[in-house]
Amino acid sequence: MGVFDFVRNAGAKVGIGKSTDEIDEEAREKEAAAAAAKASIQKINKARVAQQNSDKTAVKRAAAVEERRKNLQKSEGLENYVRMLGLEAEGIDIRYDDGVAYINGTCPSFKAKQQLILAVGNCEGVGSVDEDIEIVRVKQDAPDEEEATLVTVKSGDTLSAIARDHLGDAGRYPEIFEANKPMLKDPDLIFPGQVLRIPGA
């Protein structure tokens, strides 16, 4: 009996066990596979995040396109409304954007200008009017007209009450009604928040 020494690295070559080189190689292969799997997962996650960001961008773009379409539709609706009222105005261009109506064009008088502004401003969805309306008098000898006072209708107001408060006589309500035609079609149909012209106040 005795002790026999063998070369351990040779064992695998004959199918008995694994050599240290083979064990080290397997460890390197496992580490490489783990690193490749980690890189693959990171790549998939990056792709997923990029896709989510792309989806969000696409949603934002779609929302912006829809908003522009709605603004254009509102602009056309306001222009049609002004034409339907038959207001004295030329070359009127109305652009609606996020609650603001931008009006360009010409009117023959301050009265016509104010009527145009009020007609547009009193439409649903319009929070303010930004105007660049030029007064172009058709008749040069026409008297200069001062702008009328603008009054916002409060809850419970009537044209008679507004006439009493601003013109000193409730019986002068027809003057207010006439000053706000064709926007007003009935002296009893006014609503809170509506802005009216008060002539000669």
Question: What characteristics describe this protein?
Answer:
single chain, 5 strands, 201 residues, Histidine-containing Protein, Chain: A, two-stranded antiparallel ribbon, alpha+beta, Membrane-bound Lytic Murein Transglycosylase D, Chain A, three-stranded mixed beta sheet
Description:
There is one protein chain. By secondary structure, the chain is an alpha+beta fold. Among the domains are: 64-144, 2-Layer Sandwich (Histidine-containing Protein, Chain: A), CATH 3.30.1340; 148-201, Roll (Membrane-bound Lytic Murein Transglycosylase D, Chain A), CATH 3.10.350.10. It contains 4 helices and 5 strands. The strands form 2 sheets. The protein has a 3-stranded mixed beta sheet. Strand 1 and strand 2 (100-107) form a beta hairpin.
What is the second-level CATH architecture of the domain at 64-144?
A: 2-Layer Sandwich
Largest sheet: 3 strands, mixed
Q: Which runs of at least 5 residues are low in confidence (pLDDT < 50)?
A: none
User: Globular, elongated, flat, extended or rod-shaped: what is the shape?
Assistant: rod-shaped
Q: Total number of helical segments?
A: 4
Helix- and strand-based class?
Answer: alpha+beta
The chain-level mean pLDDT equals 84
Strand order of the largest sheet: 1-2-3
- Count of strand segments: 5
CATH topology of the domain at 64-144: Histidine-containing Protein, Chain: A
> What amount of the residues lies in strands?
15-25%
Radius of gyration: 40 Å
The CA-CA distance between the termini, in Å, is 131 Å
Following the backbone from N to C, one meets helices and strands in this order, namely HEEHEEHHE
